[in-house]
Write a structure and sequence with these properties.
There is one protein chain. With 241 residues, the chain is an alpha/beta fold. It is built from eight helices and seven strands. Strands 3-2-1-4-5-6-7 form a seven-stranded parallel beta sheet, with helices on both faces. Helix 4 links the parallel strand 4 and strand 5. Helix 1 crosses helix 8, helix 4 packs parallel to helix 5 and helix 6 crosses helix 7. It starts with 6 loop residues before the first strand and ends in a 17-residue tail after the last strand.
Length: 241
């Protein structure tokens, strides 16, 4: 019960990594408020929820006000392929607003911030420059928060997943192959662990960073990617495909 007596806000908390994180926090004693655009998945996972759009600063402020002072803030909400302005607003600007509005409460409770970046924070393909830029910016925002808020007892860390089996991931997989399992095998064929992650595997790292078990970790960027960013594609053994 690492989170007994703790209060957390998880954005994008109704599905995927956010839902898995919410369940893990709840199982370990936390009171969790979830925020998202759709009411149904939120109320299915927590009796405390805020229906709102993180790209709207007023909705972010309302979520923080309704939640009250936080011990844990997890910015998990994300989007891709919806246009530059929206992608930056949801993935990056929202984190700035949420952290700013929650800052005083986090200082009072010596809390923890965990942002959900991506392997796209550090490596790039030929497309999705908006998503890559947003996630890279999110990582640096998190590290900046760690430096500024550390003297006040607040920690800030970022988790960067690779491919994860989520509803958002499946949308991308179906663009590649109607057989979702085969698509996941294709995109992870050079990852050392040769598979996509389950949401619970990412959630366990998020919860570790949010807990006192990580009390001397701040400004850290943790790759949860099956080793994919360790691979040098110039020397990969293509015979092992």
């Amino acid at each position: 019960m690492r989170f007994s007596g703790k209060r957390a806000l998880v954005t994008g908390g109704g599905t995927g990594i956010g839902a898995a994180t919410t369940k893990r926090l709840q199982a370990e004693g936390a009171e969790v408020i979830v925020m998202g655009r759709r009411k149904a998945p939120l109320e299915a996972i927590s009796d405390r929820f805020v229906v709102g759009d993180v790209s709207n600063a007023d909705d972010c402020r309302r979520a923080i006000d309704e939640a009250g002072p936080l011990d844990i803030l997890v910015h998990n909400a994300g989007t891709a392929g919806t246009g530059w302005d929206d992608v930056i607003a949801v993935n990056l600007t929202a984190a700035h607003h949420l952290c700013s509005f929650a800052e005083q409460g986090l200082i009072e409770r010596r809390g923890a911030i965990v942002t959900i970046g991506s392997t796209a924070s550090v490596v790039s393909g030929a497309v999705d420059a908006d998503y890559n830029a947003a996630k890279a910016g999110l990582v640096m925002l998190t590290r900046s928060l760690a430096v500024r808020l550390g003297p006040h007892g607040v920690r800030a860390n970022s988790v960067c997943p690779g491919w994860v089996r989520t509803p958002m991931g499946e949308i991308d997989m179906r663009k590649l192959n109607e057989d979702v399992d085969e698509a996941y095998r294709t995109v992870t064929r050079f990852a050392p662990l040769r598979r996509a992650a389950e949401p619970e595997e990412v959630a366990s790292v998020i919860c570790f960073l949010a807990s006192d078990d990580a009390s001397y970790m701040t400004g850290t960027v943790v790759m949860v990617d099956g080793g994919s960013t360790a691979v040098d594609v110039l020397v990969v053994d293509y015979d092992e495909e």
